[in-house]
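Pasting as-is:
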Amino acid sequence: MIKHAYQIPTPDEEAASAPPSEAADEHIAPAPRVSVQAFCDTVETAAAVQAAGEDRRLAKAHVKIQMGGITAAVEAYRSAPTPNVIIIEAIHGPDEILHGLDQLAEVCDAGTRVIVVGNVNDVTLYRDLTRRGVSDYLIGPVGTIDIVRSVCGLFSAPDAKPVGRIIAVVGAKGGVGASTVAHNIAWAIGRDLGLDAVVTDLDLAFGTAGLDYNQDPPQGIADAVFSPDRIDTAFVDRLLSKCTDHLSLLAAPATLDRVYDFGVDAFDAILDSLRSSVPCIVLDVPHVWTGWTKRLLVSADDILVVAGPDLANLRNAKNLVDLLRVARPNDHRPYYCLNQVGVPKRPEITPADFAKALEDQPLAVIPFEPQLFGTAANNGQMVEEVSASHKTAEMFRQLAQVLTGRAEAKRARGLLPPVFARLLKWSA
């Protein structure tokens, strides 16, 4: 009997009859730095693997594609080591598939994981595959998200804690209150949803998170980004400042004694560390356009663009949303909300015009409330602390639910009619 090298824990055989039903925008943990080689029989599967290799969740993986199916794989590895993951497309019958895998086992290195793509929907075949140590069996035709889910799933242990969800909040223009929105959403995630969360202030020179939460920590994100060799979970934990039982702050120094020029991957190690220990990370992304801000937005699980009701915000918001939709083809489109709406005597672009230009409704329309927000800012408080029953505080709770996947986006839109009513009254 051949000893198969790809020894992977066999999943529950009852799952054989349960086809995947997850949506394309589900929360899938990203894969680590691994090598993936695919041997395809059809151009359609090759195209799906190619697109998967360009997905943000496989950004660290090295994906290589060859044609020829399982026969080509066996020949390729007779004189070469096998990668971390092999994807095999087998369009033949069950006997041919099993025979080819037996041949592959003879040349496969220990620790290599195998994913098989076939067109035979048969429980007996699935059981034979799992007994041979095959990690996953996908029934064709497969889509991009099927490949992403399968490869990433190989590196998520069943008993492991879920990988943290990253929510990026960015302003379409400076001064639109994106930081205030980010901080209040993070507060709602920790206080109202009871999720452990970290809000990360990425505006190292002028960040306001410390002021908004009434915190003055001696250390923060600068200590991590300028000491990449020291980054691990314990080190990052020491840099966090506790705001509530469930919310911590990774503060910006907000000083000008040095310049803050970073490489594209400057924050990767920090976020990887936070992902491994915190269920939710809220990024307060400054309004600058650099390689690292683009990378953070593209790699985030959820994105909220905050815009004001004027033409520059409309243009910038559309540019951001359009770029991110192209860069993240397998994710749902970025969310956006309007802030500081209804300033007396100020001409404004209506939410309806924003919705037409961006081809999507805003997640929320936050009214201009200078007394409420001014009091909160000057006291180092969140809106909910100033007035928990205020409608704006409820908006932040709804935004927190949507961005953490606890509610559908359409529920937040239920907040819009009262706001539109106020806008109509102001414009009358």
